[in-house]
Amino acid sequence: MSDYEYSEQEEIFSQVLRAGRRTYFFDVRSTKAGDYYLTVTESKKFTHDDGSFHYKKHKIYLYKEDFNEFNEMLAKATDYIINEKGEEVISERHQKDYQKPSEVATTVDDTESKSTDSFTDVSFDDI
Q: Is 24 helix (H, G, I), strand (E, B) or coil?
């Protein structure tokens, strides 16, 4: 039996969550002993300047004996985030032209000083 056939045989249940450049796969698989475990895979697409692309994948394996504690910690962590920052998603950071607030302040200051400089460059002798 090839690795591909074994891989297909052991996958029991699957769900996919697409989230922008990331895709999350939740797969229930079977151990050699016939028990089930969960794999969570994050796949992220990277595009090169020439238009070609590649994916980076990160995977965690979660076994039944860890489900309760994992669920508790995940719930606590997500509740903390929602309580501290709310449910609104701050998405500007993920845009290509995103600038950190400190960069925006510098850009605005530069623009203001340039417009002020050009304004004060007026010669009153010309009036």
A: strand
29, 38, 35, 44: which is closest to 74 by C-alpha?
A: 38
Domain extent, residue 25, equals 3-118
Encoded tokens for 68: 């309760």
Tens digits of residue pLDDT in 39-71: 999 999 888 889 888 889 999 999 999 999 999
Q: Which of 27, 20, 26 is nearest to 45 (CA)?
A: 20
- CATH number of residue 32's parent domain: 3.10.450.700
d(CA 23, CA 116): 48
Q: Look up residue 53 and give its DSSP letter.
A: E
Q: Is residue 70 part of a domain?
A: yes
In a domain, 124, yes or no: no
Write down the pLDDT at residue 20. Answer: 85
> Residue 62 corresponds to which tokens in the numbers above?
């979660």
Instruction: Answer yes or no: is 10 within a domain.
Output: yes
Strands 53-63 and 11-19, bridge-based pairing: unpaired
Q: Is the pLDDT of residue 98 over 90?
A: no
Residue 126 lies inside a defined structural domain of this protein: no
d(CA 14, CA 38) in angstroms, rounded, equals 10
